[in-house]
Design a protein that fits this description.
By secondary structure, the chain is mainly beta. The chain has one helix spanning 36-40, and strands spanning 2-6, 12-16, 46-52, 62-67, 72-77, 83-86, 98-103, 107-115, 124-132. It has one domain (2-132): Carboxypeptidase-like, regulatory domain (Immunoglobulin-like). Helix content is 4%, strand content 43%.
């Protein structure tokens, strides 16, 4: 299944996952909505920035999020500020089972930081540094 949502100039969110993994995503069709019922089931959310070595933001970078135990992948793109955010994992998903990889054509990843949160209500920050290859 593929869902594409466009918000503003250059910001695209694309979700792809196997039909058997659909239950792992909180709220099913209500991805990204601020609904109290969905927040009760909300698990790990992630956000971050993609920048180059001089600190300039990289827009339209590809963010690949993989959930290991459910063999599921989600692809996002950074906005014009180099920012990405994703929410929608069920609380049964362990944040340690989620990997985030940043990429863009013509670049290679040279640094990747992940700042875990001790509070499940606070998103986990993942920042990437890319350089021209």
């Amino acid at each position: 299944m593929m869902l594409v949502v466009r918000r503003g100039r250059g910001f695209v969110i694309a979700l792809g996952f196997a039909c058997c993994a659909g239950a792992a995503w909180a709220g099913g069709g209500s991805f990204g909505q601020d609904d109290d019922a969905n927040d009760q089931n909300a698990g790990p959310s992630f956000f971050g920035f993609v920048k180059d070595k001089s600190g300039d933001v990289i827009d339209d970078a590809k963010i690949t999020v993989t959930v290991k135990n459910v063999n599921s992948t989600m692809i996002l793109r950074t906005d014009s500020q180099g920012h990405f955010f994703f929410k929608g994992f069920d609380k049964s998903i362990d944040p340690g089972d989620i990997t985030v990889v940043c990429s863009k054509d013509g670049y290679r990843e040279v640094a990747h930081t992940r700042k875990p949160s001790l509070d499940a209500a606070v998103p986990i920050e993942v920042d990437c540094i890319l350089e021209r290859s």
